[in-house]
Amino acid sequence: MPQLNPNPWFLTLLLTWLTFSLAIQPKLLTFTPTNHPSYKTQLTTKTTPWTWPWT
């Protein structure tokens, strides 16, 4: 079973995670969200109870 041999894939896995951690992730973390949740206003809607015909 060659899938149990980590020798050919361990270096690929390691390089992929290092690339993600050191190059891609800091670039993604510098983006600022356009719709910040704290700036949204709370809308309260008045609900009316349902009038059931059998009660």
UniProtKB/TrEMBL annotation:
Keywords: ATP synthesis, CF(0), Hydrogen ion transport, Ion transport, Membrane, Mitochondrion, Signal, Transmembrane, Transmembrane helix, Transport
Entry-linked InterPro entries: ATP8_metazoa, ATPase_protein_8
Compartment annotation: Mitochondrion membrane
Membrane protein topology class: Single-pass membrane protein
Coiled coil: none
Pfam families xref list: ATP-synt_8 (PF00895)
Entry annotated with the keyword DNA-binding: no
Protein name: ATP synthase complex subunit 8
Species annotation: Herpetotheres cachinnans (Laughing falcon)
